[in-house]
Amino acid sequence: MSDCLFCKIVSGDIPAQVVYNGPNTTAFRDINPQAPVHILIIPNHHIEHIRDWGAYDNNILAEMFQTANTVAEMEGIADSGYRLMFNYGADGGMEVYHLHLHLLGGRMLGPMVVRQ
Amino acid sequence: MSDCLFCKIVSGDIPAQVVYNGPNTTAFRDINPQAPVHILIIPNHHIEHIRDWGAYDNNILAEMFQTANTVAEMEGIADSGYRLMFNYGADGGMEVYHLHLHLLGGRMLGPMVVRQ
Questions:
Q1: Global model pTM greater than 0.80
Q2: Which of A75, A111, B22, B100 has the CB geometry, 3.0–4.6 Å to B40, for a possible disulfide?
Q3: Which of residues 7-46 of B touch A (CB under 8 A)?
Q4: Which residues of chain B have a CB within 8 Å of the CB of A85?
Q5: How many CA atoms does the CB half-sphere of A26 hold within 13 Å?
Q6: Do A107 and B94 touch (CB under 8 A)?
């Protein structure tokens, strides 16, 4: 999509710290990292969000996770552990509506959500 | 696996609050919920973790997400938003080594990880 930030990262029109490219995926560092390793894995073709999964090729979803696991190895966090996360909607805190998988690691990540 | 807690939930040998069954998935409430809605989605057949994805049928992974989205609708959090999460290893806080996808929602979930 012409006005999508992440599509522009895929096309190279907006710079990003790309760490890995899969056949159909791009992995780049989050501009506002929440952990020592915080990388986003996106499909190169525009998919809006995870909510309506089922309309797409299941292999793309699996490739996103394979890319994440490969990047975890590259970043040296595969053995220590990591978290893989999709956010959807306001409560999830989704900000860019191009599907992105968060890879977080590099320290003990602690609770999955902040307690109220 | 005979000594796997989640395999025993699938088989019914250990009780759980099952909310939905997909063709190859089971969704049940987390026994220690971290949010108003906290449900685990697992494949019925034993898969240890997400780290070595690639050895399995990609459709199973997609079905886990489809199950999660269906459950989000059932729980009334599809519009408000939610978080879908895999943890791997010690830093991720993985506890049971039968692949499970966390569905979290029902309130603003806030930061993805607790800041140090």
A1: yes
A2: B100
A3: 34-35
A4: 83-86, 112
A5: 19
A6: no
